[in-house]
Structures
1.
Amino acid sequence: MTSAPDLRPPSRPIKAAARFAKWQGRLAELAILCGIVLIFSVINPSNFPTVSNFNTILNNAAIPAILGVGASFVVLTGRIDLSIEGVMGAAGMTFVLLSANSRETMDLGWLALPIALALGAALGALTGAIHVVAKVPSFIVSLGMWYIGLGVAAMLFGYEMIPFLSNEAAVAWPTQTPLGVPNSFLVALLVVAAGWAIERYTRLGRFAYAIGNNEGVARLTGIAVGRYVVALFALAGVCSALAGVMGSLALGAGAANVGIGMLFLTLAAIVIGGTPLSGGKGGVLRTLVGVLILSTLYNGLILSGVDPSIQSGVSGLVLVAAVIVAGWPHRNRLKVFK
């Protein structure tokens, strides 16, 4: 005769073990960050562990952190957004040409920012809509949108002189530190906080996890997968546009290639932070840690006088190692990007 199932709640040791497993990855990433800081502080004690250098690290981390918020939501669904650099270029150039600039094209004041963000949202939504309606893999659609964005930026740039921003106070604002850290990083923290709130308290965030975990089950439960995927791509477009604006302020001018190199850095930070490319796990806070790991690593290598080619090799090794570590437990369900 079979015995009745044990319906008692899990014991405290089991609960504690579950909580430890949940936090183990996050603590490991923070430990890696602290370890990198400690190593470079020992190697270069006169230049690395200074307030000025830490502010430099945070300022360099701001734009990838903003990009990482939007890109993380897309990756959570098991998809990928490669349009980052193109959207940055188009939105950044739009912002500069609608602000006070050396060409005297137009000065809409504060309206330049929402218009640039709206352009990013439109490009992101278009990427998502083509992917959902035409059933084209997201990496192909977003790769095409990358070049469309660059084309828009090049058309806006035209054949005239470089449009420099005329407002010197606005150009200097991102690197100023009235609260002890660069304003650019404060903006990034606000974006990360907003992303975390969306992730935790809204349907958009919860459904992103559900879609990434099992899209078929998500559809069976009544989730309008296509609609939410388009919304998440639009959100990623807004983040890319804001990053383009911040990059243009840092340059003090409009440039179609304002986002050059940001795609690799952003996707690497997402994976290193613990969000697998298969989706369903991770989030924006972990991406922020990934960004800080890479920014600190780059900064430390530069201050240590490491050759740029070796820096690239180290970055590649870190990324490959992170992909293996993050993807190994989920290797049985990894598949080509949707």
2.
Amino acid sequence: MFLLFCWIFSAGSATLLAQTDRSEQTNQTSPSHYSVIAPLAEKSLLLDAARRKGLILAVGERGHILRSEDRGQSWTQARVPTQTTLTAVYLHDQKLGWVVGHDGVVLRTEDGGRSWTLLRNVPKDELPLLDVWFRDDREGYALGAYGLFLHTRDAGESWERKKVHPLDDSHLNHFAVTSAGHYFLSAEAGNIYRSLDEAKTWERVPSPYEGSFFGVLPLDGDLLLLFGLRGHLFQSRDGGDTWQALKTDSQALLLGGTVLEDGTVIIVGMDGVILISHDNSQHFRLYPQPDRKGITGLLDLGDRQLLLIGEEGLRSLSLTDLESGK
């Protein structure tokens, strides 16, 4: 069975976090081994991908990082100084980027993913990082288990641990930024956090559901989509103040989404779920994949071509063929 919940960890982690100083200096002890170069790495479990112009990077299990410069037609595996599961990647441009993962790992590339430097590695904490986002080439954020929220001002060389909410240690799953510059964190147990001052302060916004959320997808203006467990998909037209449920015809876990250049909105998830909207997220149609393999995310390759990321690794899909039933 596909165990996508790679952010499950030992019961002792919460206690350990409570005993750790919030402004601890990051542990930069290097692991003793590198990821294994595998002929079928592009078919292994992959959890996230990012694109900047002609460069695509994808990350996943066993420290796998794959790069492509031909719209996903071919892939090269990088030599990476960890074998831990990598959960998220962020590209600032075609050269500079960061990856986070289990053991609190943070990696940085300055040559478009060809080589990587280990900046942070704290296996003793048993706190995986689940997402990463950078405001510019110096300041960024990484987030993860039990409310772990890290801030750097030096491109990841050092990290300060901060608290999003004083009474909540929910797992923080995803970081999103709207066109208005408002920040959102989607978390477990129905928690959603919003910052209107560039992460200086956070507020918990009203939640339409008590289950976990795995992503916020900003659309035009104050229009947002929020998705998570059991096929739950919600829309907000007022920047997160209120939410309305959308019909998905699925109870699968929803994990990722994107907006194509033509305005098409796509949400993906477990059981091969692909949800598509052509009316600015007012209505979605379900296109389940026959193999029912989990999809963790997707990228727009242009010309109605998609790159799917997930249990099957990486695969291209024609949106035209999908909607025509081919």
3.
Amino acid sequence: MARWPVPLRCKSRLAAGLGPQRAARVQQRLLQHGLGVMALAAKRQGIALRLAMAGVGPRAALREARRLGLGDVVLQGQGCLGVRLQRQFGRAFATGHQQVVLVGSDLPQLAPADLVGAFAALERQPLVLGPAVDGGYWLIGLRRPAPPLFCGVAWGGEQVLAQTLSRAEGMGLDWALLRQQADLDRPGDLLPWRCL
């Protein structure tokens, strides 16, 4: 899941400190990195890869997908993050997928092993999450639709992971956690990644 990497349409918290042009360049590099990692994992594991874009219209999304060498791109649609996540899971399960993993596009440390590990975890548990340093999560995977999992969560806050786990517990969903990663949202998050 990614926002279109153009000024004023992505990384608003990062743009507040760096300016919209530089924030868009950072988003573009993060998106290229993430897609490269996902392509490697897809090739190794036979994973179908789909880019869900936000902040863009259908024609521009298709142009961006072609530029990035992707065949499958969809729009995230309207709504809060929970609604958009739920929509992507619904689309994937409706087309017959048995395991679905959604990953953000702002992960400089993302590696193919993270995605392979997520799908391996879904063999044992119905839910897998990749905890983020800021209290959210950078990855979520499911073996079946679970719309209530996305309700009542304060999206963007430091309790997203805790609230999601509480929802999962209430639904009787066991889970597996992957390694913790830092996503890149604010100017201070760039300090370890000066190469960006």
